[in-house]
Amino acid sequence: MSLQDAIKTYHDLLTDEMAAESQAQLDDQLQRRGLYFGDRPLCTVLRPRFLMPDQYSYLRRSIHPLLEAFCKISNAAVEDAEFRQQFRLDEWEEKLMEINPGYSSHTPLSRLDAFFLTESGDLNFTEYNAEVPAASAYNDVLTKVFLGLPVMGQFLREYVVNPLMTRHDVLHVLLQAYKEWGGTGRPNIAILDWREVPTYSEFELFIRFFEGQGFVCRIIDPRDVEYKNGRLSAADFPIDLIYKRVLITELIERGGLDHPVVKAVADGNVCMVNPFQCKILYKKASLAVLSDERNSHMFSEEEYTAIRKHIPWTRVMEERKTSYGDVPVDLIPFILKYQDRFVLKPNDDYGGRGIVLGWQTNTSGWEQAVEDALKTPYVVQERVPIPEEPYPSMVDGRLQIFDRMLDTAPFIFYGNYVDGCLTRLSNDPLLNVSAGGGSSVPTFVVSER
Question: Between 3.30.1490, 1.25.10, 3.40.1000, 3.40.1130, what CATH number should domain 313-382 receive?
Fold first, then answer.
């Protein structure tokens, strides 16, 4: 049995009647459960992502040595200001690195974003979302929605379908960090972000889960907190533990380094997950630090092999000589000459903003993009193949199945292991829901009965 067999079986079950019934139930569930990114439905297709057991195992095994390597460079960056320069932190970020979070991990909650050609095993991790990895709750609830669709009821007769839930992992990580920080009892949890963000509906899903586990939790806007007498609070709600979903850059831009949250964390009077040190690995330059030949001595043979195999060639944009494979090159002339091989990414941004794809840009546009990228922290990364799979959707009342590009974004916990996976579909190679397009689908590990 192959992945294609499972996909074909599912698609064959989608008769006109079954597709219409399943779509109606999907629409109803999205509405009932608040599965919207802003005003857009989170999912627009009728099939979830399938992985075979050996493919999911390969994904998890491949990531483990990379996580050890990421941990090494993050620890080195915190301890050594000179080494930290490779990550191109801003001056205000440097100051935040001095704040001890009270627990050991710099990235207790994170997500690696990859492109996975499941048939060949070609797996490339292109970004490390180490600051505010979203979609865990969305993914869990979408999983429940798809398990209840009429077509899934028929599919379950032939296949064992294992869901990949993760909200419980998020809660365990938060509580472990709180305990290591020195907290006791059941903490009051604040989900911290701006009230106008499009992911607000996911915070509400987390609230329901946390409260269902017996925890008091509120969604708190950073503009509503105050820090008095060693206590961080929002109105009448004292905060013990922050589940930080606000971007650090936005928090500092709006509130400065004197923001009550910064002061409370610095004073050790509130526990915040993820800590300010997560900024190090959130930088796109973290992949450049991993793949740069200047740092190869830092890694074990297993780690170095995994980096070479799964981290695309990445360099910080600067005038320098480096190596491409085993060939010495002059960086800027090299990427100007071979623009179809490369993508430019801002060192610190999200949602696909500022990304320039060399193969979709004319020569003069690429030359200008390279010139601009030298003026502000950017990285250049080697192009990787983007997989496609067929997905069914209802268009004008008719079922249509066509190929969509997809990514593979496993959730990482304690900076140590994989549990669960986000999958995003798109017709655009940026594959980012927050960029204004695409669709999220839950991921299931399937095997034949």
Answer: 3.30.1490
Angle between helices 16-33 and 136-147 (to 10 degrees): 140
Residue 100: asked if its preceding bond is cis (omega within 30°), the reply is no
Q: Where are the domains of the chain?
A: 3-282+387-448, 313-382
Helices 301-310 and 53-79, packing angle to 10 deg:
110
Beta strands 321-324 and 231-234, pairing class? unpaired
DSSP 304-369: HHHHHHHS--EEESSS-EEEETTEEEEHHHHHHHTGGGEEEEESS--TTTT-EEGGGS-HHHHHHH
Measured CA to CA, the distance from residue 267 to residue 243 in angstroms comes to 18
pTM above 0.70, yes or no: yes
Could you list the pLDDT tens digit for every one of the 449 residues in the chain?
799 999 999 999 999 999 999 999 999 999 999 898 888 899 999 999 999 999 999 999 999 999 999 999 999 999 999 999 999 999 999 999 999 999 999 999 999 999 999 989 999 999 999 998 999 999 999 999 999 999 999 999 999 999 999 999 999 999 999 999 999 999 999 999 999 999 999 999 999 999 999 999 999 999 999 999 999 999 999 999 999 999 999 999 999 999 999 999 999 999 999 999 999 999 999 999 999 999 999 999 999 999 999 999 999 999 999 999 889 999 999 999 999 999 999 999 876 788 999 999 999 999 999 999 999 999 999 999 999 999 999 988 899 999 999 999 999 999 999 999 999 999 876 555 444 447 999 999 999 99
CB 433 within 8 A of CB 39: no
Fold of 3-282+387-448: Rossmann fold (3.40.50)
Classify the C-alpha dihedral 264-265-270-275 as positive or negative.
positive
